[in-house]
């Protein structure tokens, strides 16, 4: 199965024209649309408890309900911090993508539009992190350095494959959060804006990835699979910064080990990645040595788990 079988590739200019039209009708200014002065409701979760990295573990049982809710705010802040990191990389890669192309084309004008969207999203995420009472969870120096390398060596399939991966993971978590009225209102408002605008970004990335992947030779595809696997591994394993555990009184090293082995957390990551795994796996972009990193990141399910095994098999 190929990406084309799942998502027919339309004319590049035609799809960009439609995306530009959609952007004109449904774009948001988070600084205006969101009530940033509203108090944070600390009596509710910021994300569903079953999506938290320690849910179901012995450490989870040690926490009070108040600590669990505080952990939810810090884990949302950590995920948003990763979002800011990758959006900053993506904006640079989109500028490079547009650099040698005709700016009068719809395709390049939509790339510029997406860059503007991502700028607003990064500001929105940053403001949300601050309002949740959490710090900006800066990545470790190795991952920070690898991010610089990736944006420099990225080719077309890597740019759009990597973008699609990060956007799909966030999209799945936020689609669930935005409709759950039991969750923190600010997180729901941020999720709603991001979901609406990222739907266009994912369409753009999905079709551009498919278009560029078709023309790659076997060596280029092998290179792309390996680098994409590394990007996926480092992005996924850094979603939850160990410092979030210290914020609720846990030992970061012990909690990180528990989260890494937690079947509930592995299943959540597999669930969040299932669509992008189907898309990229169907194209043959998750195979060979690169597939090792997807599995090591916990995105292809747990051995013996029928639900996650079915997702993995489709890839």
UniProtKB/TrEMBL annotation:
GO terms, molecular function: oxidoreductase activity
InterPro entries noted in UniProt: AurF/CmlI (IPR025859), Ferritin-like_SF (IPR009078), RNR-like (IPR012348)
Listed Pfam families: AurF (PF11583)
Signal peptide: none
Protein name per UniProt: Diiron oxygenase
Organism: Nocardiopsis gilva YIM 90087
């Amino acid at each position: 199965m190929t990406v084309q079988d799942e998502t027919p590739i339309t004319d590049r200019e035609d799809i960009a024209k439609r995306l530009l039209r959609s952007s004109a009708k449904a774009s948001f200014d988070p600084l205006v649309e969101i009530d940033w002065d509203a108090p944070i409701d600390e009596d509710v979760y910021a994300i569903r408890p079953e999506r938290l990295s320690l849910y179901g573990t012995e450490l989870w049982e040690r926490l009070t309900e108040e600590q669990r809710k505080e952990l939810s705010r810090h884990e949302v802040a950590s995920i948003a911090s990763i979002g800011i990191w990758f959006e900053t990389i993506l904006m640079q890669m989109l500028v490079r993508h547009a650099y040698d192309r005709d700016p009068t084309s719809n395709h390049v004008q939509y790339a510029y539009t997406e860059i503007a969207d991502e700028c607003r999203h990064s500001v929105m995420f940053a403001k949300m992190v601050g309002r949740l009472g959490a710090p900006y969870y800066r990545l470790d120096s190795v991952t920070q350095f690898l991010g610089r390398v990736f944006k420099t060596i990225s080719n077309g399939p890597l740019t759009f494959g990597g973008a699609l991966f990060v956007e799909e993971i966030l999209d799945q978590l936020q689609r669930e959060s935005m409709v759950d009225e039991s969750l923190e209102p600010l997180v729901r408002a941020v999720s709603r804006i991001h979901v609406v605008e990222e739907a266009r970004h994912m369409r753009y990335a999905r079709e551009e990835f498919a278009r560029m992947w078709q023309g790659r030779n076997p060596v280029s595809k092998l290179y792309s699979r390996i680098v994409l696997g590394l990007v996926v591994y480092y992005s996924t394993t850094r979603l939850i910064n160990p410092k979030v555990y210290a914020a609720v009184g846990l030992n970061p090293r012990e909690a990180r080990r528990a989260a890494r082995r937690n079947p509930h957390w592995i299943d959540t990551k597999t669930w969040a990645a299932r669509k992008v795994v189907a898309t990229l796996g169907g194209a043959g972009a998750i195979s060979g040595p690169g597939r090792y990193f997807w599995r090591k990141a916990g995105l292809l399910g747990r051995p013996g788990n029928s639900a996650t095994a079915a997702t993995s098999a489709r890839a």
